[in-house]
């Protein structure tokens, strides 16, 4: 029974690692689509989101199957419930990459992001990439230190988010309300991506240490 | 065992009904705070969100306890996993009411919403209220018809969301970029509140019918 549980847990963890890699790749490609007005790249992100959703359902099915077959208790039960939480966060991160790609498509062939904002979105994408990478790495090899770094990455994302608004609110902002609306929503998508990465990290910490972090 | 499970399920369902009522009240009060620049109302919404989060944790603990004690299978297991999903959606709806309240506070004592947008936010709040009410009612008395109505409510919310952007994008929009940014984010909060209500409804339909709806 114990062996069987470990094998199941390994399969679930591998599905989560795959999801983390997929959402990381999706946000990177969505950012490229956004900054280079690349229609094909945007469409690929949207297709890939269906695969992420399918993997999410696989995690759910596998967890329900384990609960039904093995009726785990204590830390084994906690691991299964945590897997559901992490999968839900990763699924949502995939949705947010999809939203960035759709914003790029909606303005295509014009770029959705004016020159003044390319740097901040490039940096937000860089932080997002680092955070998704850390989720993948702590899932593959649990490490509470790495998971805790996600909080600091999230602070960096928040700083970038504030600097985005500072550009939008300059008196000489020349691009009008429509571009400001797009930039506001895009900023929110990257910020939420980071929030979900932090949540996922907290669940992994809980799994490793048994201690919940403050919500 | 069967009796015990039914009693546990009843407790979990009651916690979810309480959450649905709380998030409904929270979004209503957050909207009042927004439209009347009412600081006290906004602060109450923010305090109440901590209680919603606490109820969410109670649902999780109760579900884990049931899984550990009773090892339910088949439809009983599905009911417990569904409860976790519905609780997560409701918890997020509470966060979104909290975000609306915080937007009201950030601009206080000025109103965050100019006169031209009061009607659309009043209507969005009306749809949000109806949707949260339906979640509460289908949880208390499962009814796939009522749950399905949530899709139509969500269409109404999307129409309102589009009409919000139409106002923001008028050539004679007189309030500048900052107010447009606030309105964009507020619109997103109401729209996401509706999305989570739809998700919660889909989970309840799944519980009633055993058939997943299309994602």
UniProtKB/TrEMBL annotation, chains A, B:
Complex formation: Homodimer.
Function comment: Plays a role in the regulation of phosphate uptake.
Localization per Swiss-Prot or TrEMBL: Cytoplasm
PANTHER family in UniProt: PHOSPHATE-SPECIFIC TRANSPORT SYSTEM ACCESSORY PROTEIN PHOU
Keywords: Cytoplasm, Phosphate transport, Transport
Family: Belongs to the PhoU family.
Domain named PhoU: residues: 17-103, 122-203
NCBIfam families linked: phoU_full (TIGR02135)
UniProt-listed InterPro entries: PhoU (IPR028366), PhoU-like_sf (IPR038078), PhoU_dom (IPR026022)
Protein name: Phosphate-specific transport system accessory protein PhoU
Pfam families cross-referenced by the UniProt entry: PhoU
Native species: Plantactinospora siamensis
